[in-house]
């Protein structure tokens, strides 16, 4: 079982073996997450899928407060090193790395990736996390892609954290297909409601997932769930 706490948009904290891993922190600029105190977030790792502002806005602040290790692609890691972040681990597509909480594999995503200052964020990606407590897929921002089937070939995925907001990423219908591709019936939705472009009908999304035999979780900001 793995605990996840939702901080809004695409930002989650997971706890594996007592170790906290934060994904894509965009919290302080998000008015929906105004109740979250960023300075109280103290992870051991920060995993970053790509370079857009709505995924990296609080990375530097949290990393410097916590001394967390940043894990992302080479270009993103280099960008943060230039900001004085020293505890880093660069990866790229197809690569895996064993950390003290489990194994991280950096996988393909179909999107774009530019850093807030306009410099290259490399190629966008997602992560497959495998551990003694379970395995999950954190997709990042992506379109539906047939490459997701390769994940099911190598991993028994317990749940998938998937974008459902449409417009910039998959919608719920494509997320359901993505869950099929990676071999899970549990979807944790992300990248929805933060901006007008990505507002969704939550009840309709849950009905579509249920009809397809999937369980869709849309946690409240600040809520923790265990799967």
From TrEMBL:
SUPFAM superfamilies in alphabetical order: Metallo-hydrolase/oxidoreductase
Signal peptide region: none
Record GO terms (molecular function): hydrolase activity
InterPro entries reported for this sequence: Metallo-B-lactamas, RibonucZ/Hydroxyglut_hydro, UPF0173, UPF0173_UPF0282_UlaG_hydrolase
Pfam families: Lactamase_B_3
Family, per entry: Belongs to the UPF0173 family.
UniProt xrefs under NCBIfam families: PRK00685.1
Entries under PANTHER family matching the protein: UPF0173 METAL-DEPENDENT HYDROLASE MJ1163, UPF0173 METAL-DEPENDENT HYDROLASE MJ1163-RELATED
Protein name per UniProt: UPF0173 metal-dependent hydrolase G9Q97_11955
Organism: Cyclobacterium plantarum
């Amino acid at each position: 079982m793995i605990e996840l706490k939702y901080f809004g948009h695409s930002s989650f904290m997971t706890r594996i073996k007592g170790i906290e891993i934060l994904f894509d922190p965009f919290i302080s600029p998000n008015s929906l997450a105004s109740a979250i105190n960023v300075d109280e977030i103290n992870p051991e790792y920060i995993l970053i899928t790509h370079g857009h502002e709505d995924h990296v806005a609080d990375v530097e602040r949290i990393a410097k407060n916590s001394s967390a290790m940043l894990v992302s692609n080479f270009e993103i890691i280099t960008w943060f090193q230039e900001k004085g972040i020293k505890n880093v681990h660069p990866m790229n597509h197809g690569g895996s790395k064993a950390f003290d909480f489990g194994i991280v594999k950096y996988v393909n995503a179909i999107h774009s990736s530019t850093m807030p200052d306009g410099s290259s964020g490399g190629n966008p990606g997602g992560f497959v996390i495998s551990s003694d407590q379970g395995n999950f897929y954190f997709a990042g921002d992506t379109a539906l892609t047939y490459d997701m089937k390769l994940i099911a070939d190598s991993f028994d995925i317990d749940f998938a954290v998937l974008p459902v907001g449409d417009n910039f990423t998959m919608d719920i219908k494509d997320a359901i297909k993505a869950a099929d591709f990676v071999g899970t019936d549990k979807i944790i939705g992300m990248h929805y409601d933060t901006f007008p472009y990505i507002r969704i009908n939550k009840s309709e999304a849950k009905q579509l997932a249920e009809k397809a035999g999937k369980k869709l979780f849309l946690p409240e900001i600040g809520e923790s769930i265990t799967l």
